[in-house]
Specification:
108 residues; alpha+beta; 38% helix
């Protein structure tokens, strides 16, 4: 059984925010270790879409990036962050429910 992998070359064109609006391109090479079954299915789907495998995968990556859901490091507003933090706090029970953390007790 032969393990097939695809080397995919991505080219992303981005506009630099300068006075002259310079254009540049950056690229990324990715090797995907695919099982023979996954490789065959990928080739079939690309052929059905009327494109080559690299273009098919690039389109799938672009679609996923366009979704923008669950982006790590995505900025939340303070209210959103606070709500998420409160949910996280509530999901962790107190380790010492009898601990007195009132300010009055520290002055005794």
């Amino acid at each position: 059984m032969v393990d097939k992998s695809f080397d995919i070359f991505f080219s992303v064109h981005q506009c630099a925010a300068t006075a002259s609006a310079l254009w540049y391109s950056s690229s990324m090479s990715i090797t995907l270790p695919l099982t023979p079954e996954a490789s065959a299915e990928l080739e079939q789907r690309a052929a059905a879409a009327g494109t080559d495998v690299a273009s098919y995968v690039l389109d799938a990556v672009r679609e996923k990036l366009a979704e923008g859901d669950d982006v790590p490091g995505q900025q939340l507003s303070y209210d959103e962050w606070s709500g998420e933090f409160q949910k996280w706090l509530a999901s962790h029970p107190s380790r010492n429910p009898h601990f007195d953390d009132s300010r009055d007790s520290i002055y005794d």
